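Students often ask why inverse folding is considered easier than folding. One informal answer: many sequences map to the same fold, so there is more than one right answer. In these notes we will look at a single instance of the problem. The structure comes first.
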């Protein structure tokens, strides 16, 4: 927040929050996915989640044509998968040829190696939010519960610092 009040700048510093991989498939068969840091649950009843995709990102182009998005949580030890979806551009590389995945019931690509995932129907697109476009999602499908045991550390911003985004040239 250049040129802003110093107290607001400190508030806007990115926390070490969970990172997500968001994937989309359009009706024409195009697939895309990217690493996302801006995402949050935003309603309990009805359940809603929002993700913001960068306007510079190839995934945004596919997501604009999609009806569903899949949101994946990775473990802290899955930097390689995060790197693939965070540094490679889907306009140049087929990321899905490099990882196991399957289409959800609604066609969104689901990454087999994700710790957890859900597919959400796009309820609303929020275009006027700055350099990202928001997608309000209503969950329609989710990963099965994992075996009980200690919860793994999830992939966080600190795990992917230093990655160079793979936006189109």
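Output (designed amino acids):
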């Amino acid at each position: 927040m250049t040129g802003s009040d110093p107290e607001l700048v400190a508030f806007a510093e990115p926390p070490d929050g969970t990172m997500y991989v968001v994937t989309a498939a359009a009706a024409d068969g195009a697939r895309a996915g990217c690493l996302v840091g801006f995402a949050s649950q935003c309603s309990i009843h009805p359940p809603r989640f929002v993700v913001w995709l960068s306007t510079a990102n190839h995934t945004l182009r596919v997501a604009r044509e999609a009806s569903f998005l899949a949101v994946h949580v990775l473990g802290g030890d899955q930097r390689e998968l995060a790197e693939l979806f965070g540094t490679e551009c889907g306009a140049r590389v087929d990321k899905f040829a490099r990882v196991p995945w399957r289409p959800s019931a609604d066609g969104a690509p689901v990454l087999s190696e994700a710790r957890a995932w859900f597919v959400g129907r796009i309820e609303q697109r929020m275009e006027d939010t700055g350099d990202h476009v928001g997608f309000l999602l209503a969950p329609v499908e989710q990963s099965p519960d994992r075996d009980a045991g200690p919860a793994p550390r999830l992939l966080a911003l600190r795990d992917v610092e230093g990655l160079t985004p793979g936006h189109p040239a």
